Every structure is written in C-alpha cells, then in structure tokens.
Amino acid sequence: MYVVMGANGQTGGAVAQSLLALGQAVRVVLRPGRSGQYWESRGAEAAYADVQDAAALTAAFTGARAVYVLNPPDYAADDMLASARAVAAAYATALQAAGSRVVALSSIGAQHAEGTGNIVTTNILEQTLAPLGASFVRAGNFMTNWLPSLPAMRDGILPSFFSPLERPIPHAAIEDIAATAVRELQRDDSRTIELAAAADYTPGDIAEAFAAALGRPVTPQVIERGQWRQALAGMGLPLATIGTWEKMWEGFNTGHIRFENTPERGRATIEDFAKAAVARTQAQQ
What we know:
Blueprint: E1 2-5, H1 10-21, E2 26-30, H2 37-40, E3 45-48, H3 54-61, E4 66-69, H4 80-98, E5 101-107, H5 120-129, E6 135-139, E7 141-142, H6 150-154, E8 157-160, E9 171-172, H7 174-185, E10 192-196, H8 203-214, E11 219-222, H9 228-234, H10 242-254, E12 264-265, H11 270-284
Parallel strand pairs: 1-2, 1-4, 2-3, 4-5, 5-6, 6-10, 7-9, 8-11, 10-12
Helix pairs in contact: 1-7, 3-4, 4-5, 8-11, 9-10
C-alpha cells in the first residue's frame, strides 16, 4: 500500500495515477470535507486528514509501505514558515507512529535555510524529515508556473521575473516529478534527487516554445525590480506573502537558488509542454 498526499493537486494526482496504473494499492489523503468519489472510482482508498492533524495523518499512513508528502506554502497564513513547521512536525509524528517510509517533494534551493523566500518551507520539510531516513525529490522551477502568463503570451509578451533573460533556469515537469517519486517510493533506501527537465531554459526559450505552439511571435520582457510588488499584487497574492516571493526571485536572479549537484534529467521538454498546454486551453474554449 502506498499513501499519497495532495492527490487533488498536480504532483500528488500524477503520483497516485501512476501508482494505480502499475497495479499498486493506493490510499489518497484528502482534506476533510472533500469528496473521494473520483479516486474511489479508480480503485484507490480515500482517507481524510488536515495536514496539521498528526492523529488523523497517523491513521491515514498506517499500513503504508511508503508515503508521498509535500508541504506547499500556505500563502493565507499570517506566518507561512510557522505553518510549514507545523505541517512538517505533524508528518514526522505520523510517519514515526505508522512506521512508514517517506518520499517528499522538495525544491531546487532547499539546501538553504534563508534567502530563498517561500522555498524555505521545503528546507523546513527536509530538516524535519531527514532524521527519519526520508528521500527528497528537489525539483526545478515547475513548467506549469508559466501558464498564468499564457493570456499575455497570446498578446505577444512573456513577462518574466527571471533576469537576465539569457540565464538558463532549471525547470521540471509534473510527469517527470511523478515518475521519479513513484520510483523512489518503491525503493528501500533514502537519498536526495535533484531533478530537472531534459534541458535548462531561458525566458527566451520559453517564449520561443510558446510562440511555436501559438503560431505567433512572443517576446520575453523583464519585470523590473521596482515593479515586482505591484505585479505580484496584481496576480492576487496576499500582501503579507509578497515579500517571500520577492526574496525567491532575488534568490534565483543572484544564483543563490541552484542545485547543489548535477541534477538528474527527466524526459520532458519545454516545446512539448507548450504544445500540450496550448492545445489543452484551445480544447476548453
């Protein structure tokens, strides 16, 4: 039995689907009040637990050979880092009680305890779970993070917090993260895997890939540092968390946020991702 947190999200959903496709027994853990009908119809068990409820998590993890966890930043919290510590502590308590291995989604830059903005939450997760013999999948910048800019790209502009535009940034695709997590869940050892896509991509590469998919020119354009706060607020982010986003972009742009070692390469390319994303949105229109 494998237990998957975040099954209604991107990576958790992909991990659960992949495990089911392999014929593995899967239990997904959903937030209380959410329906488990979708997953139960696909052969999974459904359990319910708040991510800070150690007792409920223990019940959900019991009987699992391994558990997939993640600690997404709680942007609505007054203190995002305090929330991350509470989640990580609840995971640790539940995993020890259940006696289950754990594979955790982490991030590029998770080796740093400061200077990475909201990525600090993954450092907290690693530091808390490492004594349990956890494995961590440190992923590059999610390719899906570019999708909110698709409307702007349709108008010919790709706004970018990354600067300079010529610097390649490690990216990662959901399918590669899921494949890596599923592989690690089935192992018995513990390690840290730094994971990137088939290549690193500059904002210019991203623009070129989406231009080809859209069939129209797309020009990358740096969002100047003095415009960050306004731009982030315009994205609907809570004002209390904007500073953490600013620190994250600064960390990328100074090179502070980087992999420690040579990353493992996935199969996904930005060209294939862009084609699929544009085709998907066109089908929905």
